[in-house]
Protein backbone atom coordinates (compact mmCIF):
# COMPACT_ATOMS: atom_id res chain seq x y z
CA UNK A 1 0.00 0.00 0.00
CA UNK A 2 2.69 2.48 -0.95
CA UNK A 3 0.71 4.21 -3.67
CA UNK A 4 -2.94 4.83 -2.94
CA UNK A 5 -4.77 5.78 -6.14
CA UNK A 6 -5.04 9.47 -6.83
CA UNK A 7 -8.41 8.84 -8.44
CA UNK A 8 -9.83 8.77 -4.92
CA UNK A 9 -9.34 12.52 -4.37
CA UNK A 10 -12.54 13.88 -2.86
CA UNK A 11 -14.07 10.40 -2.95
CA UNK A 12 -16.01 9.07 0.03
CA UNK A 13 -13.31 7.63 2.25
CA UNK A 14 -11.53 10.70 3.51
CA UNK A 15 -12.60 10.16 7.10
CA UNK A 16 -8.99 9.74 8.23
CA UNK A 17 -8.07 13.10 6.69
CA UNK A 18 -7.15 14.40 10.12
CA UNK A 19 -4.33 14.86 12.58
CA UNK A 20 -3.81 11.95 14.97
CA UNK A 21 -4.48 14.21 17.96
CA UNK A 22 -8.10 14.71 16.90
CA UNK A 23 -8.56 10.94 17.26
CA UNK A 24 -6.65 10.67 20.52
CA UNK A 25 -8.75 13.53 21.95
CA UNK A 26 -11.87 11.82 20.61
CA UNK A 27 -10.94 8.69 22.53
CA UNK A 28 -10.22 10.76 25.64
CA UNK A 29 -13.56 12.57 25.44
CA UNK A 30 -15.30 9.25 25.01
CA UNK A 31 -13.47 7.73 27.95
CA UNK A 32 -14.45 10.72 30.11
CA UNK A 33 -18.06 10.51 28.98
CA UNK A 34 -17.75 13.94 27.34
CA UNK A 35 -18.38 12.83 23.78
CA UNK A 36 -21.91 14.25 23.63
CA UNK A 37 -21.35 17.48 25.55
CA UNK A 38 -22.62 20.17 23.19
CA UNK A 39 -19.82 22.39 21.87
CA UNK A 40 -19.41 25.32 19.52
CA UNK A 41 -16.33 26.00 17.40
CA UNK A 42 -15.53 28.85 15.02
CA UNK A 43 -13.21 28.77 12.01
CA UNK A 44 -11.55 32.10 11.21
CA UNK A 45 -8.28 33.67 10.06
CA UNK A 46 -6.49 36.41 11.94
CA UNK A 47 -5.02 38.35 9.05
CA UNK A 48 -6.11 38.73 5.44
CA UNK A 49 -3.64 37.13 3.01
CA UNK A 50 -1.16 38.99 0.76
CA UNK A 51 -1.19 42.00 3.12
CA UNK A 52 -4.54 42.69 1.56
CA UNK A 53 -7.72 44.05 3.01
CA UNK A 54 -10.08 41.10 2.52
CA UNK A 55 -10.43 37.41 1.63
CA UNK A 56 -12.90 35.49 -0.52
CA UNK A 57 -14.35 32.53 1.39
CA UNK A 58 -14.02 29.25 -0.53
CA UNK A 59 -14.05 25.52 0.04
CA UNK A 60 -17.43 25.05 1.70
CA UNK A 61 -18.71 22.71 -1.02
CA UNK A 62 -15.82 20.33 -0.33
CA UNK A 63 -16.36 20.65 3.40
CA UNK A 64 -20.00 19.69 2.90
CA UNK A 65 -18.95 16.75 0.76
CA UNK A 66 -16.49 15.64 3.43
CA UNK A 67 -19.05 15.90 6.24
CA UNK A 68 -21.78 14.13 4.30
CA UNK A 69 -19.44 11.20 3.82
CA UNK A 70 -17.95 11.19 7.30
CA UNK A 71 -18.14 7.62 8.53
CA UNK A 72 -15.41 5.16 9.42
CA UNK A 73 -15.18 2.27 7.02
CA UNK A 74 -13.94 -1.17 8.01
CA UNK A 75 -10.62 -0.33 6.33
CA UNK A 76 -10.36 2.87 8.36
CA UNK A 77 -11.06 1.01 11.59
CA UNK A 78 -8.65 -1.80 10.76
CA UNK A 79 -5.96 0.79 10.26
CA UNK A 80 -6.79 2.55 13.54
CA UNK A 81 -6.76 -0.82 15.30
CA UNK A 82 -3.22 -1.38 14.02
CA UNK A 83 -1.84 1.73 15.76
CA UNK A 84 0.22 1.05 18.86
CA UNK A 85 1.04 2.92 22.04
CA UNK A 86 4.64 3.40 23.20
CA UNK A 87 4.47 0.09 25.06
CA UNK A 88 3.06 -1.78 22.09
CA UNK A 89 -0.55 -2.03 23.26
CA UNK A 90 -3.34 -0.95 20.88
CA UNK A 91 -3.57 2.84 20.87
CA UNK A 92 -7.36 2.70 20.57
CA UNK A 93 -9.33 0.00 22.43
CA UNK A 94 -11.78 -2.11 20.47
CA UNK A 95 -14.87 -0.74 22.23
CA UNK A 96 -13.93 2.81 21.19
CA UNK A 97 -13.47 1.66 17.59
CA UNK A 98 -16.87 -0.01 17.80
CA UNK A 99 -18.26 3.36 18.91
CA UNK A 100 -16.65 5.08 15.92
CA UNK A 101 -18.10 2.45 13.61
CA UNK A 102 -21.68 3.33 14.49
CA UNK A 103 -21.09 7.05 14.95
CA UNK A 104 -23.17 9.29 12.71
CA UNK A 105 -22.34 12.91 12.05
CA UNK A 106 -24.98 15.10 13.68
CA UNK A 107 -23.53 18.57 14.05
CA UNK A 108 -25.09 21.85 12.97
CA UNK A 109 -22.92 23.88 10.61
CA UNK A 110 -23.48 27.52 9.71
CA UNK A 111 -21.16 29.17 7.22
CA UNK A 112 -20.58 32.06 4.91
CA UNK A 113 -21.58 30.94 1.42
CA UNK A 114 -18.61 30.49 -0.90
CA UNK A 115 -17.68 33.74 -2.60
CA UNK A 116 -18.55 35.84 0.46
CA UNK A 117 -16.00 38.53 1.24
CA UNK A 118 -14.59 37.85 4.72
CA UNK A 119 -12.37 39.84 7.04
CA UNK A 120 -9.93 38.98 9.81
CA UNK A 121 -11.40 37.40 12.96
CA UNK A 122 -14.82 36.70 11.48
CA UNK A 123 -16.08 33.13 11.67
CA UNK A 124 -16.28 31.77 8.13
CA UNK A 125 -17.90 28.74 9.64
CA UNK A 126 -19.45 27.71 12.95
CA UNK A 127 -19.90 24.13 14.13
CA UNK A 128 -22.26 23.19 16.93
CA UNK A 129 -22.74 19.65 18.10
CA UNK A 130 -21.32 16.79 20.16
CA UNK A 131 -17.86 17.78 21.42
CA UNK A 132 -16.17 14.68 20.04
CA UNK A 133 -17.52 15.21 16.52
CA UNK A 134 -17.10 18.98 16.39
CA UNK A 135 -13.46 18.55 17.46
CA UNK A 136 -12.75 15.62 15.16
CA UNK A 137 -13.50 17.55 11.95
CA UNK A 138 -11.15 20.47 12.70
CA UNK A 139 -8.24 19.45 10.52
CA UNK A 140 -10.22 18.53 7.41
CA UNK A 141 -12.19 21.78 7.59
CA UNK A 142 -9.01 23.81 7.93
CA UNK A 143 -7.07 22.10 5.16
CA UNK A 144 -9.95 22.56 2.74
CA UNK A 145 -10.97 26.10 3.63
CA UNK A 146 -7.52 27.59 4.27
CA UNK A 147 -6.20 26.63 0.85
CA UNK A 148 -9.25 27.38 -1.26
CA UNK A 149 -9.86 30.71 0.49
CA UNK A 150 -6.22 31.63 -0.09
CA UNK A 151 -6.32 30.84 -3.81
CA UNK A 152 -9.76 32.39 -4.38
CA UNK A 153 -8.43 35.58 -2.78
CA UNK A 154 -5.33 35.54 -4.98
CA UNK A 155 -7.55 35.08 -8.02
CA UNK A 156 -9.76 37.99 -6.95
CA UNK A 157 -6.68 40.21 -6.75
CA UNK A 158 -5.55 39.10 -10.19
CA UNK A 159 -9.05 39.81 -11.46
CA UNK A 160 -8.88 43.25 -9.88
CA UNK A 161 -5.63 43.99 -11.73
CA UNK A 162 -6.83 42.53 -15.04
CA UNK A 163 -10.14 44.41 -15.02
CA UNK A 164 -12.37 43.03 -17.77
CA UNK A 165 -9.53 41.25 -19.62
CA UNK A 166 -9.67 37.48 -19.92
CA UNK A 167 -7.67 35.58 -17.28
CA UNK A 168 -6.64 31.95 -17.81
CA UNK A 169 -5.25 29.74 -15.05
CA UNK A 170 -2.25 27.71 -16.28
CA UNK A 171 -0.89 26.44 -12.96
CA UNK A 172 -1.28 22.67 -12.80
CA UNK A 173 2.36 21.86 -13.65
CA UNK A 174 3.60 24.04 -10.80
CA UNK A 175 0.87 23.31 -8.25
CA UNK A 176 1.44 21.59 -4.88
CA UNK A 177 0.75 18.17 -6.34
CA UNK A 178 -2.38 16.82 -8.00
CA UNK A 179 -4.80 17.76 -5.23
CA UNK A 180 -3.22 21.19 -4.85
CA UNK A 181 -3.70 21.67 -8.58
CA UNK A 182 -7.29 20.49 -8.57
CA UNK A 183 -8.34 22.58 -5.56
CA UNK A 184 -6.44 25.58 -6.88
CA UNK A 185 -8.18 25.44 -10.26
CA UNK A 186 -11.55 25.34 -8.55
CA UNK A 187 -10.75 28.18 -6.14
CA UNK A 188 -9.13 30.30 -8.86
CA UNK A 189 -12.27 30.03 -10.96
CA UNK A 190 -14.43 30.90 -7.94
CA UNK A 191 -12.22 33.93 -7.29
CA UNK A 192 -12.55 35.25 -10.81
CA UNK A 193 -10.43 33.61 -13.52
CA UNK A 194 -12.33 32.75 -16.71
CA UNK A 195 -10.98 29.32 -17.57
CA UNK A 196 -8.32 26.76 -16.71
CA UNK A 197 -5.90 24.60 -18.67
CA UNK A 198 -6.56 21.82 -16.08
CA UNK A 199 -8.74 19.28 -17.85
CA UNK A 200 -9.51 17.21 -14.74
CA UNK A 201 -10.80 20.40 -13.06
CA UNK A 202 -12.89 21.03 -16.15
CA UNK A 203 -14.40 17.56 -15.92
CA UNK A 204 -14.93 17.56 -12.16
CA UNK A 205 -16.14 21.11 -11.65
CA UNK A 206 -17.48 22.23 -15.01
CA UNK A 207 -14.86 24.98 -15.36
CA UNK A 208 -14.31 26.08 -19.00
CA UNK A 209 -11.01 24.69 -20.33
CA UNK A 210 -8.74 26.69 -22.64
CA UNK A 211 -5.20 26.70 -23.95
CA UNK A 212 -2.67 27.48 -26.65
CA UNK A 213 0.35 25.31 -27.49
CA UNK A 214 3.87 24.89 -26.08
CA UNK A 215 7.31 25.75 -27.45
CA UNK A 216 7.87 22.06 -28.15
CA UNK A 217 5.16 22.20 -30.82
CA UNK A 218 7.19 24.79 -32.72
CA UNK A 219 10.42 22.89 -32.09
CA UNK A 220 8.92 19.69 -33.47
CA UNK A 221 8.69 21.23 -36.98
CA UNK A 222 11.41 22.43 -39.32
CA UNK A 223 10.39 26.05 -38.84
CA UNK A 224 7.89 28.26 -37.07
CA UNK A 225 5.67 28.93 -40.07
CA UNK A 226 5.28 25.24 -40.78
CA UNK A 227 4.41 24.66 -37.12
CA UNK A 228 1.74 27.38 -37.11
CA UNK A 229 0.30 26.09 -40.40
CA UNK A 230 0.06 22.59 -38.97
CA UNK A 231 -1.66 23.81 -35.80
CA UNK A 232 -4.14 25.83 -37.86
CA UNK A 233 -4.87 22.70 -39.83
CA UNK A 234 -5.79 20.87 -36.64
CA UNK A 235 -7.74 23.78 -35.11
CA UNK A 236 -8.75 26.17 -37.87
CA UNK A 237 -11.02 28.25 -35.61
CA UNK A 238 -9.28 27.75 -32.25
CA UNK A 239 -5.66 28.64 -32.82
CA UNK A 240 -3.44 30.77 -30.61
CA UNK A 241 0.20 30.71 -31.78
CA UNK A 242 3.07 30.94 -29.29
CA UNK A 243 5.40 33.35 -31.10
CA UNK A 244 8.52 33.61 -28.90
CA UNK A 245 10.35 30.34 -29.51
CA UNK A 246 13.10 32.01 -31.60
CA UNK A 247 12.50 35.72 -32.13
CA UNK A 248 9.25 37.19 -30.89
CA UNK A 249 8.57 39.82 -33.54
CA UNK A 250 9.68 37.46 -36.32
CA UNK A 251 7.25 35.03 -34.75
CA UNK A 252 4.47 37.60 -35.00
CA UNK A 253 5.26 38.04 -38.70
CA UNK A 254 5.06 34.28 -39.21
CA UNK A 255 1.76 34.22 -37.39
CA UNK A 256 0.42 36.99 -39.64
CA UNK A 257 1.48 35.09 -42.73
CA UNK A 258 -0.35 31.98 -41.60
CA UNK A 259 -3.33 34.08 -40.47
CA UNK A 260 -3.66 35.42 -44.05
CA UNK A 261 -3.82 31.89 -45.44
CA UNK A 262 -6.35 30.96 -42.76
CA UNK A 263 -8.49 33.96 -43.70
CA UNK A 264 -8.33 32.98 -47.38
CA UNK A 265 -9.75 29.62 -46.30
CA UNK A 266 -12.55 31.22 -44.31
CA UNK A 267 -10.97 31.05 -40.85
CA UNK A 268 -9.61 33.61 -38.39
CA UNK A 269 -6.58 33.32 -36.15
CA UNK A 270 -7.70 33.57 -32.51
CA UNK A 271 -4.55 35.02 -30.99
CA UNK A 272 -0.84 34.96 -30.37
CA UNK A 273 0.95 34.30 -27.08
CA UNK A 274 4.01 36.07 -25.68
CA UNK A 275 5.88 34.08 -23.01
CA UNK A 276 9.16 35.98 -22.50
CA UNK A 277 10.93 39.29 -22.87
CA UNK A 278 9.55 42.74 -22.22
CA UNK A 279 5.85 42.06 -22.40
CA UNK A 280 4.93 45.76 -22.53
CA UNK A 281 7.18 46.54 -25.45
CA UNK A 282 6.57 43.30 -27.32
CA UNK A 283 2.79 43.46 -26.95
CA UNK A 284 2.69 47.02 -28.26
CA UNK A 285 4.88 46.09 -31.25
CA UNK A 286 2.88 42.94 -31.90
CA UNK A 287 -0.39 44.88 -31.74
CA UNK A 288 0.90 47.35 -34.30
CA UNK A 289 2.09 44.63 -36.66
CA UNK A 290 -1.21 42.79 -36.36
CA UNK A 291 -3.31 45.93 -36.85
CA UNK A 292 -1.28 47.07 -39.86
CA UNK A 293 -1.74 43.64 -41.41
CA UNK A 294 -5.51 43.87 -40.97
CA UNK A 295 -5.81 41.65 -37.88
CA UNK A 296 -7.12 43.93 -35.13
CA UNK A 297 -9.24 41.06 -33.84
CA UNK A 298 -6.32 38.72 -33.13
CA UNK A 299 -5.91 38.69 -29.36
CA UNK A 300 -2.62 38.99 -27.53
CA UNK A 301 -2.11 36.49 -24.72
CA UNK A 302 0.74 37.00 -22.25
CA UNK A 303 2.24 34.54 -19.78
CA UNK A 304 5.47 34.18 -17.78
CA UNK A 305 5.46 34.41 -14.01
CA UNK A 306 2.66 36.96 -13.95
CA UNK A 307 0.79 38.13 -10.85
CA UNK A 308 -1.36 41.10 -9.86
CA UNK A 309 1.41 43.64 -9.37
CA UNK A 310 3.06 42.79 -12.70
CA UNK A 311 -0.28 43.01 -14.48
CA UNK A 312 -0.86 46.44 -12.93
CA UNK A 313 2.62 47.56 -13.96
CA UNK A 314 2.26 46.25 -17.51
CA UNK A 315 -1.03 48.08 -17.89
CA UNK A 316 0.59 51.31 -16.68
CA UNK A 317 3.29 50.75 -19.28
CA UNK A 318 0.66 50.68 -22.00
CA UNK A 319 0.92 46.95 -22.72
CA UNK A 320 -1.55 45.75 -25.34
CA UNK A 321 -2.48 42.47 -23.68
CA UNK A 322 -6.03 41.08 -23.92
CA UNK A 323 -5.60 37.78 -22.10
CA UNK A 324 -3.45 36.93 -19.10
CA UNK A 325 -2.22 33.35 -18.60
CA UNK A 326 -1.28 32.86 -14.94
CA UNK A 327 0.26 29.76 -13.43
CA UNK A 328 2.76 29.44 -10.61
CA UNK A 329 2.06 32.67 -8.75
CA UNK A 330 -1.66 31.96 -8.60
CA UNK A 331 -1.95 28.27 -7.80
CA UNK A 332 0.86 28.22 -5.24
CA UNK A 333 -0.07 31.61 -3.76
CA UNK A 334 3.63 32.23 -4.23
CA UNK A 335 4.01 35.31 -2.03
CA UNK A 336 1.99 33.83 0.83
CA UNK A 337 1.73 30.08 0.54
CA UNK A 338 -0.62 29.48 3.49
CA UNK A 339 -3.60 31.12 5.12
CA UNK A 340 -3.45 30.85 8.91
CA UNK A 341 -7.07 29.94 9.53
CA UNK A 342 -7.75 28.45 12.98
CA UNK A 343 -10.59 26.55 14.65
CA UNK A 344 -11.36 27.48 18.24
CA UNK A 345 -13.76 26.28 20.91
CA UNK A 346 -16.08 29.13 21.93
CA UNK A 347 -18.88 27.54 23.96
CA UNK A 348 -19.62 24.38 25.94
CA UNK A 349 -22.98 23.32 27.35
CA UNK A 350 -22.93 23.29 31.17
CA UNK A 351 -22.79 19.77 32.60
CA UNK A 352 -26.26 20.17 34.15
CA UNK A 353 -27.58 21.47 30.80
CA UNK A 354 -28.60 24.77 32.44
CA UNK A 355 -26.96 26.97 29.83
CA UNK A 356 -23.60 27.67 28.20
CA UNK A 357 -20.08 28.16 29.42
CA UNK A 358 -18.42 30.49 26.94
CA UNK A 359 -14.76 29.69 26.46
CA UNK A 360 -11.77 31.80 25.55
CA UNK A 361 -8.19 31.13 24.44
CA UNK A 362 -5.88 33.79 25.85
CA UNK A 363 -2.78 35.04 24.14
CA UNK A 364 -0.02 37.48 24.93
CA UNK A 365 -1.28 39.38 21.92
CA UNK A 366 -4.84 40.64 22.31
CA UNK A 367 -5.31 40.13 18.56
CA UNK A 368 -4.82 36.38 19.06
CA UNK A 369 -7.24 36.05 21.98
CA UNK A 370 -10.36 34.23 20.81
CA UNK A 371 -13.94 35.46 21.11
CA UNK A 372 -16.39 33.49 23.28
CA UNK A 373 -20.02 32.86 22.38
CA UNK A 374 -22.14 31.38 19.63
CA UNK A 375 -21.21 33.98 17.10
CA UNK A 376 -22.97 35.46 14.12
CA UNK A 377 -21.51 38.06 11.74
CA UNK A 378 -23.79 40.94 10.82
CA UNK A 379 -22.74 43.05 7.85
CA UNK A 380 -24.14 46.58 7.73
CA UNK A 381 -24.47 47.98 4.26
CA UNK A 382 -25.19 51.33 2.64
CA UNK A 383 -28.32 51.79 0.55
CA UNK A 384 -26.23 50.93 -2.49
CA UNK A 385 -25.19 47.64 -0.91
CA UNK A 386 -21.68 48.77 0.00
CA UNK A 387 -20.39 47.09 3.17
CA UNK A 388 -19.86 49.64 5.96
CA UNK A 389 -18.95 47.64 9.07
CA UNK A 390 -19.29 44.12 10.41
CA UNK A 391 -20.45 43.25 13.90
CA UNK A 392 -19.81 39.96 15.68
CA UNK A 393 -22.41 39.14 18.31
CA UNK A 394 -23.34 36.27 20.58
CA UNK A 395 -26.58 34.66 19.39
CA UNK A 396 -27.00 32.96 22.79
CA UNK A 397 -27.61 36.29 24.54
CA UNK A 398 -30.30 38.91 23.88
CA UNK A 399 -29.16 41.90 21.83
CA UNK A 400 -29.64 45.32 23.46
CA UNK A 401 -31.99 47.78 21.75
CA UNK A 402 -29.19 50.22 21.01
CA UNK A 403 -26.31 48.49 19.27
CA UNK A 404 -22.75 49.69 19.53
CA UNK A 405 -19.79 48.16 17.69
CA UNK A 406 -16.51 48.14 19.59
CA UNK A 407 -13.07 47.70 18.06
CA UNK A 408 -11.65 44.77 20.08
CA UNK A 409 -8.10 46.12 19.76
CA UNK A 410 -9.00 49.63 20.90
CA UNK A 411 -12.15 49.84 22.98
CA UNK A 412 -12.15 53.62 22.71
CA UNK A 413 -13.11 53.19 19.07
CA UNK A 414 -16.84 52.54 18.99
CA UNK A 415 -19.67 53.38 16.70
CA UNK A 416 -23.36 53.37 17.44
CA UNK A 417 -25.46 51.56 14.84
CA UNK A 418 -28.36 53.57 13.51
CA UNK A 419 -31.38 51.26 13.89
CA UNK A 420 -32.51 51.71 10.29
CA UNK A 421 -29.18 50.56 8.78
CA UNK A 422 -29.66 47.58 6.46
CA UNK A 423 -27.72 44.43 7.26
CA UNK A 424 -27.17 40.81 6.28
CA UNK A 425 -26.32 37.90 8.57
CA UNK A 426 -23.36 36.16 6.94
CA UNK A 427 -23.44 32.72 8.57
CA UNK A 428 -26.20 30.68 6.96
CA UNK A 429 -27.44 27.21 7.95
CA UNK A 430 -25.64 24.45 6.03
CA UNK A 431 -26.16 21.35 8.22
CA UNK A 432 -28.78 20.66 10.86
CA UNK A 433 -28.31 17.51 12.93
CA UNK A 434 -25.82 16.29 10.34
CA UNK A 435 -28.17 16.74 7.41
CA UNK A 436 -27.51 19.17 4.58
CA UNK A 437 -30.24 21.81 4.87
CA UNK A 438 -30.43 22.55 1.15
CA UNK A 439 -28.26 22.09 -1.92
CA UNK A 440 -25.29 24.46 -1.92
CA UNK A 441 -24.90 27.08 -4.65
CA UNK A 442 -23.19 25.91 -7.83
CA UNK A 443 -19.58 26.89 -8.48
CA UNK A 444 -20.77 29.38 -11.11
CA UNK A 445 -23.17 30.97 -8.61
CA UNK A 446 -20.41 31.26 -6.01
CA UNK A 447 -18.15 32.85 -8.61
CA UNK A 448 -20.84 35.42 -9.39
CA UNK A 449 -21.22 36.16 -5.69
CA UNK A 450 -17.47 36.64 -5.27
CA UNK A 451 -17.37 39.04 -8.18
CA UNK A 452 -20.32 41.04 -6.86
CA UNK A 453 -19.06 41.16 -3.29
CA UNK A 454 -15.49 42.17 -4.15
CA UNK A 455 -16.71 44.92 -6.47
CA UNK A 456 -19.04 46.23 -3.76
CA UNK A 457 -16.04 46.89 -1.49
CA UNK A 458 -14.67 50.37 -1.37
CA UNK A 459 -11.55 50.62 -3.60
CA UNK A 460 -9.53 51.67 -0.55
CA UNK A 461 -10.09 48.19 0.90
CA UNK A 462 -9.34 46.45 -2.41
CA UNK A 463 -6.08 48.19 -3.19
CA UNK A 464 -2.87 46.16 -2.98
CA UNK A 465 -0.64 48.63 -1.19
CA UNK A 466 -1.53 49.45 2.42
CA UNK A 467 -5.24 48.85 2.08
CA UNK A 468 -7.60 50.55 4.47
CA UNK A 469 -8.74 48.28 7.33
CA UNK A 470 -12.41 47.42 7.03
CA UNK A 471 -14.14 47.90 10.40
CA UNK A 472 -14.94 44.63 12.15
CA UNK A 473 -15.99 44.92 15.76
CA UNK A 474 -17.74 43.21 18.62
CA UNK A 475 -21.23 44.10 19.74
CA UNK A 476 -20.72 46.04 22.98
CA UNK A 477 -22.16 43.52 25.45
CA UNK A 478 -20.07 40.78 23.82
CA UNK A 479 -17.00 42.98 24.03
CA UNK A 480 -17.66 43.70 27.72
CA UNK A 481 -18.21 40.01 28.41
CA UNK A 482 -15.01 39.06 26.59
CA UNK A 483 -13.03 41.67 28.55
CA UNK A 484 -14.44 40.32 31.82
CA UNK A 485 -13.55 36.78 30.85
CA UNK A 486 -10.00 37.81 29.95
CA UNK A 487 -9.62 39.44 33.38
CA UNK A 488 -11.04 36.40 35.14
CA UNK A 489 -8.81 33.96 33.30
CA UNK A 490 -5.78 36.08 34.06
CA UNK A 491 -6.81 35.97 37.71
CA UNK A 492 -7.29 39.72 37.89
CA UNK A 493 -10.29 40.82 39.90
CA UNK A 494 -11.79 43.44 37.68
CA UNK A 495 -14.87 45.60 38.00
N1 LIG B 1 7.62 45.37 -19.16
C1 LIG B 1 7.79 44.64 -18.07
N2 LIG B 1 7.80 45.21 -16.87
C2 LIG B 1 7.99 44.50 -15.76
N3 LIG B 1 8.15 43.17 -15.76
C3 LIG B 1 8.14 42.52 -16.93
C4 LIG B 1 7.95 43.22 -18.14
N4 LIG B 1 7.99 42.32 -19.14
C5 LIG B 1 8.17 41.12 -18.58
N5 LIG B 1 8.26 41.22 -17.26
C6 LIG B 1 8.43 40.13 -16.25
O1 LIG B 1 9.80 40.01 -15.95
C7 LIG B 1 10.12 38.68 -15.58
C8 LIG B 1 11.33 38.19 -16.34
O2 LIG B 1 11.09 38.17 -17.76
P1 LIG B 1 12.12 37.50 -18.76
O3 LIG B 1 11.57 37.44 -20.11
O4 LIG B 1 13.47 38.11 -18.58
O5 LIG B 1 12.11 36.11 -18.10
P2 LIG B 1 12.51 34.72 -18.49
O6 LIG B 1 11.56 33.81 -17.78
O7 LIG B 1 13.96 34.59 -18.16
O8 LIG B 1 12.27 34.61 -20.04
P3 LIG B 1 12.79 33.43 -20.95
O9 LIG B 1 11.61 32.53 -21.15
O10 LIG B 1 13.22 34.14 -22.19
O11 LIG B 1 13.90 32.77 -20.24
C9 LIG B 1 8.85 37.86 -15.83
O12 LIG B 1 8.20 37.67 -14.59
C10 LIG B 1 8.03 38.75 -16.72
O13 LIG B 1 6.64 38.54 -16.54
O1 LIG C 1 4.77 31.25 -15.78
P1 LIG C 1 3.54 30.72 -15.15
O2 LIG C 1 2.69 31.80 -14.57
O3 LIG C 1 3.79 29.59 -14.22
O4 LIG C 1 2.62 30.17 -16.37
C1 LIG C 1 2.71 28.92 -16.93
C2 LIG C 1 4.00 28.70 -17.69
O5 LIG C 1 4.01 27.39 -18.08
C3 LIG C 1 4.36 27.31 -19.45
O6 LIG C 1 5.68 27.11 -19.74
P2 LIG C 1 6.82 26.58 -18.76
O7 LIG C 1 7.01 27.54 -17.66
O8 LIG C 1 6.57 25.16 -18.41
O9 LIG C 1 8.07 26.67 -19.69
P3 LIG C 1 8.68 28.01 -20.28
O10 LIG C 1 8.82 28.97 -19.15
O11 LIG C 1 9.98 27.60 -20.84
O12 LIG C 1 7.71 28.49 -21.30
C4 LIG C 1 3.91 28.64 -20.03
O13 LIG C 1 4.62 28.94 -21.19
C5 LIG C 1 4.14 29.60 -18.91
O14 LIG C 1 5.41 30.17 -18.99
O1 LIG D 1 -2.30 26.52 -22.91
C1 LIG D 1 -1.29 27.14 -22.58
O2 LIG D 1 -0.84 28.09 -23.24
C2 LIG D 1 -0.58 26.76 -21.32
C3 LIG D 1 -0.99 25.74 -20.53
C4 LIG D 1 -0.30 25.40 -19.40
C5 LIG D 1 0.80 26.13 -19.05
N1 LIG D 1 1.21 27.13 -19.82
C6 LIG D 1 0.54 27.46 -20.95
MG1 LIG E 1 7.91 29.65 -17.61
From TrEMBL:
Transmembrane feature ranges: none
Modification after translation: Transiently phosphorylated on a His residue during the reaction cycle. Phosphorylation strongly increases the affinity for substrates and increases the rate of nicotinate D-ribonucleotide production. Dephosphorylation regenerates the low-affinity form of the enzyme, leading to product release.
Domain annotation Nicotinate phosphoribosyltransferase C-terminal: ranges: 377-480
Pfam families for the chain: NAPRTase (PF04095), NAPRTase_C (PF17956), NAPRTase_N (PF17767)
Domain Nicotinate/nicotinamide phosphoribosyltransferase as annotated: residue spans: 168-348
Keywords: Glycosyltransferase, Ligase, Phosphoprotein, Pyridine nucleotide biosynthesis, Transferase
Reactions accelerated catalytically: 5-phospho-alpha-D-ribose 1-diphosphate + nicotinate + ATP + H2O = nicotinate beta-D-ribonucleotide + ADP + phosphate + diphosphate
GO terms under cellular component: cytosol
A single BP term in Gene Ontology: NAD+ biosynthetic process via the salvage pathway
Pathway membership: Cofactor biosynthesis; NAD(+) biosynthesis; nicotinate D-ribonucleotide from nicotinate: step 1/1
UniProt keyword Ligase, yes or no: yes
EC number: 6.3.4.21
Domain Nicotinate phosphoribosyltransferase N-terminal: 16-146
Top-level lineage group: Bacteria
Gene Ontology MF: a single term: nicotinamide phosphoribosyltransferase activity
Function in brief: Catalyzes the first step in the biosynthesis of NAD from nicotinic acid, the ATP-dependent synthesis of beta-nicotinate D-ribonucleotide from nicotinate and 5-phospho-D-ribose 1-phosphate.
Family: Belongs to the NAPRTase family.
The protein's name: Nicotinate phosphoribosyltransferase
Source organism: Hymenobacter rubripertinctus
